[in-house]
């Protein structure tokens, strides 16, 4: 099993296209199922530790993978049973069912086993499971010690992360051939448990990928504070938010942090404080301007936003500044960091998955968009997408978004292109949360920022 970090992500339709390309290249559908089923069987064998396995098979090719896996487990000497609720319907699944050659129990009557393999429905499910399927599945999952889902857990929507049925989460999901949106988009991602990639030789070109730990180089031997990156943070009505952003920028690698317009004294002495003026942003050494944390939405906030947009400096636009943007566009490089409510206010609720909506927002604004949440989707105007999931749920506290804005600002000022700056910032922010543990506040998060893994 392989961690999904950095792996290509495919929708259900893209996966079918990849399978069609493999068939056109000479790999038969039977061979693909044999590879998938054998891979599932091997992973289950390792985890079962000799315990009895119950494989639940659906009527399609996901069920066919289950039959192949069950046969492999039987050959390996494990006690294994198979249950289903319907006959196999595809040629490959029917052939796999015949090769299993043993009794197939009725799903509704199947007795539990310590190890449960869910191969009922894979990609492409679009409606809730019938109670005749979901009821027995819930009962068997509850009784199992370990539940392993093949490709995606039954009852979730592959492309948008929606849970179509109320079922217990799997402990492990094996992503067959490619990562799917459901593996990272909430709430489906929570149903997947731990997700591991299984390579079955499927070519999966995609501009959408799962996040991976970035490689962050130390400053060059010749570095100085301005070459490290100068960040200007524009404060406003709630100076504490600006202070958080400025402190985070300093901890995330910036060589010089300038806080403009703040009256707060709760700052490291290394952070320079000045009154806000449009002229202050004309300093050519400024590599990034962060505006929005605690800005407010009054006339003064509007003036500071106008001045920041006119500066031509690379921008990180967060919080209140997003609400004031209206139809304004940035003159230069920009990163927008809305949470769900801010995103909806700016772009509307729209349709499609969180990935689809974020890509459309990036294309429409010409900016990198960091659509924050328990799953964070980062999209560039050119169609590149990184999806980050699994961050600490303790991030759901005031001020953590201000910290993220400062971290991204530091990476942008360091000279990274906006997409890479955003990707690094989101990862560093999540890593700080992991280090901080439980029940932290945003101030604690700043103290746990580090550029080393």
Automatic annotation (TrEMBL):
Binding, AMP: 372-376, 401
Keyword annotations of the record: ATP-binding, Isomerase, Lyase, Metal-binding, Multifunctional enzyme, NAD, NADP, Nucleotide-binding, Potassium
| Location of the YjeF N-terminal domain | 15-208
Binding positions for (6S)-NADPHX per the UniProt entry: 61-65, 122-128, 151, 241, 294, 339, 402
Superkingdom: Bacteria
InterPro entries the record matches = Carbohydrate_kinase_pred_CS, CARKD, Nnr, Ribokinase-like, YjeF_N_dom, YjeF_N_dom_sf
Q: Which reaction does it catalyse?
A: (6S)-NADPHX + ADP = AMP + phosphate + NADPH + H(+); (6S)-NADHX + ADP = AMP + phosphate + NADH + H(+); (6R)-NADHX = (6S)-NADHX; (6R)-NADPHX = (6S)-NADPHX
Which protein family is it in?
A: In the N-terminal section; belongs to the NnrE/AIBP family. In the C-terminal section; belongs to the NnrD/CARKD family.
Q: What does this protein do?
A: Bifunctional enzyme that catalyzes the epimerization of the S- and R-forms of NAD(P)HX and the dehydration of the S-form of NAD(P)HX at the expense of ADP, which is converted to AMP. This allows the repair of both epimers of NAD(P)HX, a damaged form of NAD(P)H that is a result of enzymatic or heat-dependent hydration.
Provide the protein name: Bifunctional NAD(P)H-hydrate repair enzyme
**Organism per entry:** Sphingomonas olei
Write the lineage as a comma-separated list.
Answer: Bacteria, Pseudomonadati, Pseudomonadota, Alphaproteobacteria, Sphingomonadales
Q: Which gene encodes it?
A: nnrD
């Amino acid at each position: 099993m392989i961690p999904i970090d950095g792996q290509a992500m495919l929708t259900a339709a893209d996966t079918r296209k990849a399978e069609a390309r493999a068939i056109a290249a000479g790999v038969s559908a039977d061979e693909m199922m044999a590879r998938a089923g054998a891979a599932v069987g091997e992973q289950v064998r390792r985890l079962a530790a000799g315990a009895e396995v119950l494989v639940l098979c659906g009527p399609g090719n996901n069920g066919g993978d289950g039959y192949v896996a069950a046969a492999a487990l039987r050959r390996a000497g494990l006690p294994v049973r198979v249950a289903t609720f319907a006959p196999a319907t595809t040629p490959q699944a029917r052939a796999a069912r015949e090769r299993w050659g043993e009794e197939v129990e009725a799903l509704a009557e199947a007795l539990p086993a310590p190890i449960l393999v869910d191969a009922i429905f894979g990609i492409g499910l679009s409606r809730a499971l019938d109670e005749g399927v979901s009821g027995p599945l819930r009962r068997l999952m509850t009784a199992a010690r370990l539940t392993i889902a093949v490709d995606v857990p039954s009852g979730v929507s592959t492309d948008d992360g929606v849970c179509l049925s109320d079922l217990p989460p799997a402990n492990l999901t094996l992503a067959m051939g490619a990562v799917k949106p459901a593996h990272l988009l909430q709430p489906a991602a929570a149903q997947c448990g731990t997700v591991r990639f299984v390579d079955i030789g499927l070519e999966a070109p995609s501009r959408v990928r799962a996040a991976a730990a970035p490689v962050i180089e130390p400053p060059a031997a010749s570095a100085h504070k301005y070459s490290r990156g100068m960040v200007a943070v524009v404060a406003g009505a709630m100076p504490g938010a600006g202070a958080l952003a400025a402190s985070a920028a300093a901890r995330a690698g910036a060589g010089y942090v300038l806080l403009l317009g703040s009256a707060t004294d709760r700052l490291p002495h290394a952070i320079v404080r000045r009154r806000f003026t449009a002229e202050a942003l004309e300093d050519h050494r400024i590599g990034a301007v962060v505006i929005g944390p605690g800005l407010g939405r009054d006339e003064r906030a509007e003036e500071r936003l106008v001045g920041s947009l006119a500066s031509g400096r690379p921008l990180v636009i967060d919080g209140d500044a997003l609400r004031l943007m209206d139809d304004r566009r940035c003159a230069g490089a920009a990163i927008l960091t809305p949470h769900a409510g801010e995103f909806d206010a700016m772009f509307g609720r729209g349709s499609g998955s969180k990935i689809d909506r974020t890509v459309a927002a990036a294309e429409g604004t010409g900016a990198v968009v960091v659509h924050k949440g328990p799953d964070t989707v980062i999209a560039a105007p050119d169609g590149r997408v990184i999806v980050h999931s699994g961050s600490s749920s303790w991030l759901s506290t005031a001020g953590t978004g201000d910290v993220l804005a400062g971290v991204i600002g530091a990476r942008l000022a360091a000279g990274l292109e906006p997409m890479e700056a955003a990707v690094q910032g989101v990862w560093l922010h999540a890593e700080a949360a992991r280090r901080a543990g439980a029940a932290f506040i945003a101030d604690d998060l700043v103290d746990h920022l580090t550029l080393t893994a």
